[in-house]
User: Fold this.
Amino acid sequence: MTPQQLQEGILHGAPAVRRRAMAKAITLLESTRADHRTQGDELLTALLPHTGRAFRLGISGVPGVGKSTFIEALGLHLIAQGLKVAVLAIDPSSTVSGGSILGDKTRMEHLSVHPDAYIRPSPSSGTLGGVAEKTREAMLVCEAAGYDVVIIETVGVGQSEIAVQGMTDMFCVLQLPNAGDDLQAIKKGVMELADLVVINKADIDPHAATRAQAQITSSLRLLSMHGNPEHAHHDESLWTPKVITLSALKGEGVDGFWAAVQEFRRLQTANGRLAARRERQSLAWMWERIDAGLKQAFRQHPQVRELLPRLQQDVAAGRVAASTAARNLLAAQSGQALQATI
Amino acid sequence: MTPQQLQEGILHGAPAVRRRAMAKAITLLESTRADHRTQGDELLTALLPHTGRAFRLGISGVPGVGKSTFIEALGLHLIAQGLKVAVLAIDPSSTVSGGSILGDKTRMEHLSVHPDAYIRPSPSSGTLGGVAEKTREAMLVCEAAGYDVVIIETVGVGQSEIAVQGMTDMFCVLQLPNAGDDLQAIKKGVMELADLVVINKADIDPHAATRAQAQITSSLRLLSMHGNPEHAHHDESLWTPKVITLSALKGEGVDGFWAAVQEFRRLQTANGRLAARRERQSLAWMWERIDAGLKQAFRQHPQVRELLPRLQQDVAAGRVAASTAARNLLAAQSGQALQATI
Assistant:
């Protein structure tokens, strides 16, 4: 299909045509072939005016916390309300294994076959930055295709949470009702990213869940006071990160979760923070891709490729100062004469 | 003075000549003029074989924690043992105010006038990356001049701690004996950087200091278990981050601090981690400078300067996808034709 046909299918196709066009468009956007990339950019630019109306929800949590069960329960709850739900993923391990946390659709057996749900596994190649870019673009395709909520799932390890927080309107962290976990999450800086913390599997040990809720709530309060002294006084027009408990397996508390999300969306829309966050995210995304592109062009430059191995050895061995090596490599790329000292 | 004269003065000059050559060399290295930069690189490369024998000690702590008093007490303690001590600083606020945490040498009134001490304030212009680069280069000058210990001070806020940890052999965090502070430090991720935590002003409230020591010790243990599961079992050849208490004002505990530093140095030298850390730091430094240089060249490119303002607006307003804008700007810099869609 041409970009025009894909665009037409995504925007106006009948359900089956639309779904097929979405899959083909995302595959086109994932391609690294230059001609595909040009077609992909053309398609993206055409779709862009039709994006931005969905709510972008990030969900993170370590393996075993029950993310799939939760997303399935949430997705079905939203579909029952007449909403269309897309689920995407960023799985940093997929870049190594080629596998994906969402590759096995049977993990969400009811949601995955529902006509109002669209599930796509994590892109499985490239750097985290590259994977995140493809997921962002897939999100735009889903939005243009009329999905109301785009859920972006990631595992609770590494830098992938920062990537997901950086492309969603609201970032939720799933936790187990395990008192020791809160420090782990604080350590990794994830709690600071969270707009909402969800303690799942609360039915297994309700007392532990309540204790964890209190602990994490007080940690979040401390973090927000330290991070933003001006927020120490409560301002009702601003969202304050919250902690809720639920049991996705029993379907208990999913309605409360969605109520919290809607309250977040209402507040952040009214106070302008949702729009500001998206604007900031778009610009950060642009600069992140520029940085990646500059570095790639640098590493592929013939002069740099010739000089780099020896200079890296010299720097590691302490024979050449790092800053001197950097200046000489930059000069080599820009075609200037090398300095006499090298 | 020519680079050769500076080199001669730094390596072989009598004390007064050496000190003057050091100051002039560091000023030369701080200059952004292209001819100065060429001379500076020549000098650095000549000095490099004479560097690396000093111990590089990073000291961080929020204002009021007593950093100056501590560094003065430590410096005089080391000088009494026959060592020569250099004190440098990275002060992120100096890039805004032009002032510096070490600008006022009267803060260390005995150390600053001692012939075996060399104190230099933070460079006061440019980005944090630029300031850090100049401080690294000043550190190499001090090492070539025969200083045995180079202390790099920074305030306990922002990214400057990461910069200092990234250029020193050992990173120490000063804390007040205040129980609430530990979470703040964990939050900022600083505790994870610390090889040694020092609870200063322990004389004011010894009980609070002991309590803080126990709390932070247990936090560090949790962090190290989570961060490095393979270190959960104690390995005597590896350094385990420690927490000590002292009173710099009364001079109590400074000998214990230095004993811990020497133990760290002995262990990390024997197990190879000190050398590995320096190698990693040098390569990271090189890439950090390359990144900064690539971005600067990009922003200064005429085509980019022409296109960037409008594209930034388009991206912020959601008219052009961030990745599309990035690709078009990169193409503009490399002289390729712009795509038809823009």
Observations:
- The first strand of chain B starts at residue 55 and ends at 61.
